[in-house]
Amino acid sequence: MRIPFTKMHGLGNDFVVLDARIDALPPIGPATAAGISDRRTGIGCDQLILLQPSDVADFRMRIFNADGGEVEACGNASRAVALLHGSKASVETAGGTIAMEPMGNGARIDMGTPRFGWDEIPLAYAMDTLAMPVAWENLENPCAINVGNPHAIFFVEDGPSVPLERLGPEIECDALFPERINVNVAQVTGPASIDLRVWERGSGLTRACGTGACATAVAAIRRGVVSGRRIAVTLPGGTLDIEWTEAGRIMMTGPATTSFIGSFEWTDYA
Ligand SMILES: N[C@@H](CCC[C@H](N)C(=O)O)C(=O)O
């Protein structure tokens, strides 16, 4: 059985998008998602995106990390899917319903409202999530925020010097985070600008993480380390415009790109 796919990316965070909104696909579980995502034996991507019909929104977007785990949110894929869909849409995700609007060479996404409760991140036990009393070597006092998916944000003086390849997986899998965590290392570079590197839960170092940019902008505003509510967040793959509105919603604007389209032979990856 041949399956069509679209290969897309948002600032170099890349996706295989499978569209099952009209024609259903065989069930996709962790082994299939990991198999398709494998860069040597599959198509290769940071996240596999599956579009399906929805009862509560225009359509449903399911997100699988490269390790095969299904997760709640993906900011960069949201812009890519907005581009693919081509018009405004409400989209059901496991992290909540989001609103997409294609714009220029990308999209503007209403990512919803952030959550700050320790049990909403979730953490293993109660603590202040604005400046957590924990440290991993020189990475200390992160902010924890759930923007559909869980993020820890460390503000540092010198982002590039942080050994994120080594500390990222350690923090991601720490027992403090029962659902694991995305690890963000942020350096404030101006009153409304931040440089960001992200170790993504289930995918590792990526060129960009849209939800990481949203969580980091909100953390910076709450900590008072930036002025105003609109922040330019620059990741290795480029810059996103993040606004945390007075009404409490996170608006993300940035580019998305179709790399190529193709088809592959469905395999039993189990
Ligand atoms: N690349 C994404 C985030 C994908 C999910 C994340 N790795 C998780 O496990 O929560 C983005 O652009 O937000």
Automatic annotation (TrEMBL):
GO terms for molecular function: diaminopimelate epimerase activity. Its main location: cytoplasm. It comes from Tsuneonella flava. InterPro entries: DAP_epimerase_AS, DAP_epimerase_DapF. SUPFAM superfamilies: Diaminopimelate epimerase-like. The keyword Transmembrane does not apply. Catalyzes the stereoinversion of LL-2,6-diaminopimelate (L,L-DAP) to meso-diaminopimelate (meso-DAP), a precursor of L-lysine and an essential component of the bacterial peptidoglycan. The keyword Plastid does not apply. This is Diaminopimelate epimerase. The active site is at residues 74, 209. Belongs to the diaminopimelate epimerase family. Its EC number is 5.1.1.7. The record marks 151, 200 as: Could be important to modulate the pK values of the two catalytic cysteine residues.
